[in-house]
Specification:
about 240 residues, alpha/beta, two-stranded antiparallel sheet, 8 helices, 9 strands, binds adenine, transferase, tRNA processing, cytoplasm
Length: about 240
């Protein structure tokens, strides 16, 4: 069946590469169809106005409800079994993780709504929630100029999880964050470079020893760099190592 992704933005050029390169391979196989839409096509005044001053006062501008309402009217006319998922990219959303990417990769239809300015009129989110599954997602705890880069990053993480998109499925399970650990360090030829040697165990041909070394490196690296992951429940309960406190 495949995954259909629509992105609504006032900067469609910013996301144009999605329609081309990234979608290219998957689109040819019929796996993914990505379309980018300019929100201003749904703003009907002379200047295609999409923002206005906030009720209650304060700095910045708020995105008006009417263009968004029309955008969703046009894009949510689905003929699948699932309700479409609408993702609002916002620094106030749920943090984006590999687990969220996995959930989204299982959908048939995702519409990204990229907010700019100080955000979108809350009634837009409340109204669309009556006819779609709404997710508010943050790329991380920092502020971007708008949701476009977040939509791009989320799309890239999701698309590569769609079955058939990547050649080999085992390369997916072994990577960072799929098992809750960071990746072990990797090496390639030459075995000696500028006086630096590849760890001998990797040249030993002993597959069990190599797997044990890699696991140990991944655990150490995670404890060192991401104590937040180590202290998350259960994962490290049966391991010897604890983050330095
Ligand atoms: N828009 C602005 N900052 C953002 C962030 N951190 N995540 C998602 N959308 C955003």
């Amino acid at each position: 069946t495949g995954l259909r992704i629509d992105v609504v933005t006032i900067f469609p050029d910013y996301l144009a590469p999605l329609e081309l390169s990234l979608a290219g391979k998957a689109r040819d196989k019929g796996l993914i169809d990505i379309r980018v839409h300019d929100l201003r096509q749904w703003a009907h005044d002379r200047h295609h106005t999409v923002d206005d001053t906030p009720y209650g006062g304060g700095a910045g501008m708020v995105m008006k409800p009417e263009p968004w309402g029309e955008a969703f009217d046009a894009l949510l006319d689905h003929e699948g079994d699932d309700r479409p998922t609408v993702v609002f990219t916002t620094p106030s959303g749920q943090p984006f993780t590999q687990a969220v990417a996995r959930e989204l990769a299982g959908k048939e239809r995702i519409v990204f709504a990229c907010g700019r300015y100080e955000g979108i009129d809350q009634r837009v989110i409340d109204e669309v929630a009556t006819r779609a599954e709404v997710r508010e997602i943050s790329l991380g705890d920092y502020v971007l100029n708008g949701g476009e880069v977040a939509a791009l990053a989320i799309t890239e993480a999701v698309v590569r999880l769609v079955p058939g998109f990547m050649g080999n499925a085992s390369s997916l399970v072994e990577e960072s964050h799929e098992d809750g650990l960071l990746e072990y360090p990797v090496f390639t030829k030459p075995s000696s470079w500028r006086g630096l040697e590849v760890p001998p165990v990797l040249l030993s041909g002993d597959h069990a020893a190599i797997a044990a070394w890699r696991r140990d490196q991944a655990v150490r690296r995670t404890a060192e760099r991401r104590p937040d992951l180590v202290s998350a429940p259960s994962l490290f309960d049966d391991l010897e190592i604890r983050p330095a406190l």
